[in-house]
């Protein structure tokens, strides 16, 4: 009976329960290698199951959406709007991060000697490899030589490129392509059903992932960097409620309505620190919010790589935080240069594992902060990552609605009805 009552709770509440249980278990089994191994395995299995679903949904949904759109000029316009919007919002997020760091001066309040360094060798290797690749090299890798190799590696941009052209090809052959559209539509619907099954395991995956973090770090190790975590979350809240709220208002939306609809996805993103975990359900929900399949299936997978507002906030805050901690004064001109460098570096390293941390490693040397300084905040990266991932997901949801509205690919009546259904649940 209790098991049934638990299942009747919304997914968001069950995930929060998993988060609390994971934290308690991490405290109880602090530094227990057996628990860490089991919890890590549980969390990894859940993330792997989500990863298994993502690519079939992206390929099938994007191909069907583009095939139904069938207009290369329109697709180019949507693509241009999407990338411009992403760049503007990311730049605003970086500027907000720098502003908050200047206002709070939180780095000057931290004693570097009280911090315990964490091994960052895995990120150093990635930063050295990625730093040799400029924007031109990234653009060259968008075109896949072997789509199956791209699918195997999970490289999102080459997959999007192929799916767009495949969808246009299907549209070009007319009625003969309908069988492909029907098949891929069935694939997408099947994978959405599989997603609903996998999501029932989310509370267990979340408990494992957060349990590992707490068991490895312990709660005491968080105290010296507590102020940085607090400022980071305050900045992210300002961005969502303030900046995103203004953008939503301009396009005729209420940001709180949007957050209400995707609350389960935000909780999942926060607790797993994985945007990938929310991608299938976000595609499904934004369509129900009134955005056309063509816009949704293009904007959300692209945003998964390029629209990382939460990561931008963290990168700007962390860079200035470390500069302040090392008593390095940066003039306004130097901070503007830092903003530009972060803009370019973050785009050049899209898709690199641990991208936010790698971007910082490649950037902080330009302002005189030693790489070893980043090892001092590496321990709390996971906790900040939870917040920035939730911001990324919220940003992608709003971006989809904004692009859909600007293209006339948006049904306001359907949006209002869907939002009303969530308000009734409250």
TrEMBL record:
<feature type="transmembrane region" description="Helical">
    <location>
        <begin position="325"/>
        <end position="345"/>
    </location>
</feature>
<feature type="transmembrane region" description="Helical">
    <location>
        <begin position="45"/>
        <end position="70"/>
    </location>
</feature>
<dbReference type="InterPro" id="IPR036458">
    <property type="entry name" value="Na:dicarbo_symporter_sf"/>
</dbReference>
<dbReference type="Pfam" id="PF00375">
    <property type="entry name" value="SDF"/>
</dbReference>
<feature type="transmembrane region" description="Helical">
    <location>
        <begin position="82"/>
        <end position="103"/>
    </location>
</feature>
<dbReference type="GO" id="GO:0006835">
    <property type="term" value="P:dicarboxylic acid transport"/>
</dbReference>
<dbReference type="InterPro" id="IPR001991">
    <property type="entry name" value="Na-dicarboxylate_symporter"/>
</dbReference>
<feature type="transmembrane region" description="Helical">
    <location>
        <begin position="147"/>
        <end position="173"/>
    </location>
</feature>
<keyword id="KW-1003">Cell membrane</keyword>
<dbReference type="GO" id="GO:0015293">
    <property type="term" value="F:symporter activity"/>
</dbReference>
<feature type="transmembrane region" description="Helical">
    <location>
        <begin position="225"/>
        <end position="248"/>
    </location>
</feature>
<dbReference type="GO" id="GO:0005886">
    <property type="term" value="C:plasma membrane"/>
</dbReference>
<dbReference type="InterPro" id="IPR018107">
    <property type="entry name" value="Na-dicarboxylate_symporter_CS"/>
</dbReference>
<keyword id="KW-1133">Transmembrane helix</keyword>
<protein>
    <submittedName>
        <fullName>Cation:dicarboxylase symporter family transporter</fullName>
    </submittedName>
</protein>
<feature type="transmembrane region" description="Helical">
    <location>
        <begin position="194"/>
        <end position="219"/>
    </location>
</feature>
<feature type="transmembrane region" description="Helical">
    <location>
        <begin position="357"/>
        <end position="378"/>
    </location>
</feature>
<feature type="transmembrane region" description="Helical">
    <location>
        <begin position="12"/>
        <end position="30"/>
    </location>
</feature>
<keyword id="KW-0813">Transport</keyword>
<keyword id="KW-0812">Transmembrane</keyword>
<keyword id="KW-0472">Membrane</keyword>
<keyword id="KW-0769">Symport</keyword>
């Amino acid at each position: 009976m209790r098991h049934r009552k638990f299942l009747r709770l919304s997914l968001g509440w069950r995930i929060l329960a998993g988060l609390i249980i994971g934290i308690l278990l991490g405290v109880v089994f602090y530094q227990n290698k057996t628990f860490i191994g089991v919890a890590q395995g549980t969390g990894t299995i859940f993330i792997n199951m989500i990863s298994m679903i993502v690519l079939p949904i992206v390929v099938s949904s994007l191909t069907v959406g583009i095939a139904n759109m069938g207009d290369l000029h329109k697709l180019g316009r949507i693509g241009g709007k999407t990338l411009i919007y992403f760049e503007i919002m990311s730049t605003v997020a970086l500027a907000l991060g720098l502003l908050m760091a200047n206002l709070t001066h939180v780095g000057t309040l931290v004693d570097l000697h009280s911090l315990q360094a964490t091994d960052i060798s895995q990120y150093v290797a990635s930063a050295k490899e990625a730093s040799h690749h400029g924007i031109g090299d990234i653009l060259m890798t968008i075109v896949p030589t072997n789509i199956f190799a791209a699918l195997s590696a999970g490289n999102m941009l080459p997959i999007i490129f192929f799916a767009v052209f495949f969808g246009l090809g299907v549209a070009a052959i007319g009625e003969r392509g309908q069988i492909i559209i029907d098949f891929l539509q069935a694939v997408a619907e099947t994978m959405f059903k599989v997603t609903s099954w996998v999501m029932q395991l989310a509370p267990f995956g979340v408990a494992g992932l957060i349990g590992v973090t707490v068991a490895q770090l312990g709660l005491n190790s968080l105290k010296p960097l507590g102020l940085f975590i607090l400022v980071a979350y305050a900045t992210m809240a300002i961005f969502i409620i303030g900046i995103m709220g203004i953008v939503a208002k301009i396009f005729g939306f209420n940001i709180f309505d949007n957050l209400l609809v995707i609350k389960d996805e935000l909780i999942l993103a926060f607790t797993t620190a994985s945007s990938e975990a929310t991608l299938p359900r976000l595609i499904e929900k934004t369509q129900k919010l009134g955005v056309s399949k063509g816009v949704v299936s293009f904007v959300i997978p692209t945003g998964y790589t390029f629209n990382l507002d939460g990561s931008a906030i963290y990168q700007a805050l962390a860079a200035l935080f470390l500069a302040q901690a090392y008593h390095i004064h940066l003039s306004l001109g130097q901070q503007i240069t830092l903003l530009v460098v972060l803009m370019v570096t973050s785009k050049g390293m899209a898709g690199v594992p641990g991208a936010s941390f790698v971007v910082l490693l490649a950037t902080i040397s330009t302002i005189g902060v030693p790489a070893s300084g980043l090892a001092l905040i590496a321990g709390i990266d996971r906790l900040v990552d939870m917040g920035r991932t939730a911001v990324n997901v919220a940003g992608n949801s709003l971006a989809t609605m904004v692009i859909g509205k600007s293209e006339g690919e948006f049904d306001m009546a359907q949006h209002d009805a869907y939002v009303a259904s969530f308000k009734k649940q409250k």
